[in-house]
Amino acid sequence: MHHAVIAATGLYTPSESVSNAELVESFNAYVEAFNAEHAEAIAAGTTAALTPSSVEFIEKASGIKSRYVVNKTGVVDPAVMRPIIPERPNDEISILAEIGVAAARQAIAAWGKDASRIDAVICAASNMQRAYPAMAIEIQQALGIDGFGFDMNVACSSATFGIKTAADYIASGSARAVLVVNPEITSGHLNFRDRDSHFIFGDVATATIVERAEDTAPGTGWDILGTRLKTVFSNNIRNNFGFLNRAAPEGIDAADKLFVQEGRKVFKEVVPMVSEMIVTHAGDLGLDPTGLKRLWLHQANINMNEMIGKRVLGREPAPGENVIILDEFANTSSAGSIIAFHRANDDFAAGELGLICSFGAGYSAGTVFVRKR
Fold first, then answer.
1. Which of 23, 122, 156, 237 is labelled catalytic?
2. Neighbours of 331 (CB within 10 A)
């Protein structure tokens, strides 16, 4: 049985970013136009007037200040309010594969080995742009990797589910090294005309290489001490888009085919579930959760992250203990915890412990306890 190590990570960030002020300007222009167009119905009480958004509302609700997007023009245009992403011919690399490959190349460069040493590719993300061929197989081909690849969708927990699967392949001897890629174009499933959620998501791609400990240079990488997954069915976060319902039937709300959530219910139910899962898993591994040097949590919103951090550490986290990248990236679904890990681990000494944790729709949650080698 082989021990698994996180050997390297990579991050692709789009070149365009949208600030809260820009997003609010676009949203409020849409609200003004809608209320003007439906003035008579609003006065008659048959249509509800839309409420403007504000920078202050967004930052208080989420901690988000900006987000990267693959297309800014469409997002900030009040007449469009969605990313404009032209379809590509079948002989051209897909955009989801393209950004996944960019993150993967960075991880492979940091790894310092040839991609041919990778035996499997897992593309784990909240949305795939097509049913088949699998995005993972396209990424595999672009990188010149032999072996096999497949897609995995567990919403915001996809990255930790992918790492768990990769670690199991390593342990069983099925693979020497596994590449887990998380390309997230979450702006594509976001309803930019919904005041309660128009600010939540951003686009990015991350990649993680998991390999056998005996193949990893001494003093490099992160020992995976334990992984655990959990799912509990809930409708409180949902997206009904799919090949059976590409267009909303007459009388059905088309917004139902985009991201929708009951935010207060999610907070109330997910925070205790994830906090208990982390503490219990740590105990089963013989670890003291209050002694973790760092938490790299899914970047949902600032209030959830702070509450989970406090419950796990048993106190208010000190600066840097509970990594927050929401202000710059927003919620990037499965990629969030990997961004946090990628950007904030250089100061670890050998033997120090940390936790990569994700949680989201499903409900789903994953924990990966790691120790610096």
1. 156
2. 26
